[in-house]
Design a protein that fits this description.
A hairpin with a 7-residue loop joins strand 4 and strand 5. The radius of gyration is 17 Å and the shape is globular. The protein is built from three helices and 17 strands. Helix content is 6%, strand content 37%.
């Protein structure tokens, strides 16, 4: 049985140098995290057999125990490398049992993950020093882990900061020979991004790093080929700091 997890919105992929697990961090948003002019986001988990749009704010779900086979891949180039932009990796506190409040939710996958990029749009990355480059980026990616050991696995979410007890979740109902999950970290009130305007939520990624860090912004150059406006969060990736 294979595991498929589709991540959409403000999600940061971080490869753990120690365990090789893949952590997906969802930055804190709203007035307390990034200022009054950035919309609060809702982190949700959805899957057949589970509670629809389960609120995952302040919760972590560790799926690394599912194991799996196949190749270990890096997130695709359509996922912007904010670690390279920031000039450092994610510190280990954010990957442990008590991350700072700049992490609102976290999902952990086994090491052997393969990626499939979703629909893309063209953006311009503008760094602090004024340098610019055009990139093709996506706001959703599907992670696949082959041949997971789901039979006796307990689906338990853990509090990120010890404010309550662990909670056992309903087991996903397989779809054929697959377990399919959807993780979304999107604005509670969606906002439109126009050509020439910035991805205003993107700045939250830099708050996850231990400061000080360099920052950058994204400017929409060309919308998705299917038309419409992309989310203004976009996905991101970074290395972790040393073991």
């Amino acid at each position: 049985m294979d595991l498929y997890v589709t991540f959409t919105g403000l999600c940061l992929f971080v490869r753990d140098r120690s365990t090789r697990n893949l952590h997906v961090l969802m930055p804190g948003t709203g007035t307390g995290a990034g200022g009054p002019h950035v919309e609060a986001h809702l982190a949700t988990l959805d899957y057949p057999g589970g509670i629809p749009d389960l609120d995952m704010r302040d919760w972590a779900l560790d799926l690394s125990g599912l194991g799996g086979t196949g190749m270990e891949e890096r997130a695709p180039d359509t996922v912007v490398d904010v670690g390279a932009l920031a000039g450092k990796g994610i510190d280990r506190e954010q990957l442990g049992s008590g991350p700072r409040s700049t992490v609102a939710s976290r999902i952990t996958l086994p090491p052997r993950v393969r990626f499939e990029s979703g629909e893309t749009a063209e953006w311009t990355v503008v760094r602090d020093d004024g340098t610019r480059r055009d990139v093709i980026l996506t706001h959703d990616v599907t992670c696949r882990v082959q041949s997971v050991r789901a039979g006796r696995f307990r689906w338990v979410r853990e509090p990120l900061r010890g404010m309550t007890r662990s909670q056992e979740l309903r087991r996903p109902r397989p779809m054929g020979d697959a377990i399919v999950l959807f993780v979304r970290h999107l604005p509670i009130v969606p906002s439109e991004t126009l050509v020439g305007s910035g991805a205003v939520h993107f700045k939250h990624y830099f708050s996850v790093f231990k400061p000080p860090v360099r920052t950058a912004q994204l400017i929409l150059k060309r919308p998705p080929s299917r038309g419409g406006s992309p989310f203004n969060c976009m996905l991101a990736q970074s290395e972790s700091e040393g073991a």
